[in-house]
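Notes from hallway chat w/ T.B., transcribed later so I don't forget. T.B. wanted the structure written out for a chain they're using in a teaching module, and asked if we could keep both sequence and C-alpha cells in one place. Agreed to drop them here.
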Amino acid sequence: MIQLDLSDHRPLYEQIKDKTKELIIAGVLKPDDKIPSVRELAQQLAINPNTIQRAYKDLETEGYIYSVRAKGSFVAPVSHIRDKTEDAKLREEFEAMVKQARFLHVDKRELIVTVERIYSAAEYGNDSERDDPVKPQSEKEGAK
C-alpha cells in the first residue's frame, strides 16, 4: 500500500502523509475505511512507530483521518477534509500552472474543457480520463 522512497529528500513522516492522502484522493481508501494501526504500519515499513504517529497526527489535523479510541484510525468523510491551508495551497499551485499554460500559449478554452471534464468524471465516478488530463476531450473521442 505505502512504499517509502529512501532517496527522497522529504522526511519519512511527510512521505507517509502524502502517500496516504494520494490513496484517499484516488478513492483507493474510502470514507470510514480503517487504516493500518501505527504498530502495523511501522512493522510493515520497518520504521519507528513515532514516525507513523506524526504522519497520522498531521493527517488528523488536516481532516483526512479520524481516530476512534480502542478502534483505530479511519478515513474521514470528504466534507471533513477541506482545509483552508490546503485550499490556499491548491489555488496557488493552480494559478501558477494556468500562468505557465498561458505563457506556453495553451488555449484557454482547452484548459476550461479539461477542468470541466475532470469535474464531470469525478461526479459520475468515472476517472478513466485521468491518464492524460491535458489532452482535450475532442482529441480523445477522435482516437476511439
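Follow-up for T.B.: The beta strands are 34-35, 65-68, 72-75. Might be a good example for the class.
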